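ok so I'm stuck.
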Amino acid sequence: MTTAIGQLQPRQVATVGGDVVALTYAPRTAGPAVVVRLADSTGMVSLVFQGRVDVPGIQPGVHLTAHGRVGTLAGMPVIFNPAYELSEEP
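replied:
not stuck anymore, here's the structure
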């Protein structure tokens, strides 16, 4: 069962589902990281894959489900190093 992104609370463990709307890469000086912006109809969450320069299969438009502990970064919900699963359709 997934939690709507707009209902996420800090420090809870949650499973969210949505569409990848953006990918960004941290500067090399900050250490490798891929930041994935995942959105559903209720909001957006950042999925941060630390220590990675690429996450195979993740690209804009892909639907995925992610699981992990919710935090906040710059006022936005974030999940660091989530477990994830790609899916064909929402």
